[in-house]
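Treating backbone geometry as a discrete language has practical consequences that deserve illustration. No coordinates are needed to read the tokens, only the vocabulary itself. For completeness, the protein is quoted in full, as a sequence line and a line of structure tokens:
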Amino acid sequence: MQVRYKLDTCGIKLKLSDWLQMTQDEREAILELPCTTQTEIDAYREYLQQLILEKTGTPVGQLPVDAYPAWMDSSTIPITLQEKAQELGVNLSLEQWAALTPLQRFALIKLSRPSHENKNFPHAIAEFHLL
């Protein structure tokens, strides 16, 4: 999820086949490289674009970057997330939502999407002490 978070932050669509061509050191690098400030985000995007081009010979896919992603909004719990939590009998409070890190909110949002398999959603709820 940490890498997925960074990919969404910098607007890179990384295919599984691209990931599988990376060495373990390269995978660890994209996990560890900072991707918070605009300068870091730009550098992260450039690093990945170059790495994938070297590995595959084709440019990496681009995704639109949301200027105000839902996981950065600690004052509003997305409806789909609330509904998914309620299916588990969890009433997520605004206080709990605000106490989560952006990465934790990102994970919950991604794991609660209707198009997602959702099998890891209950695990994330438990890991984040929201039960």
User: Anything to note?
Assistant: The first helix runs from residue 2 to 10. The radius of gyration is 16 Å.
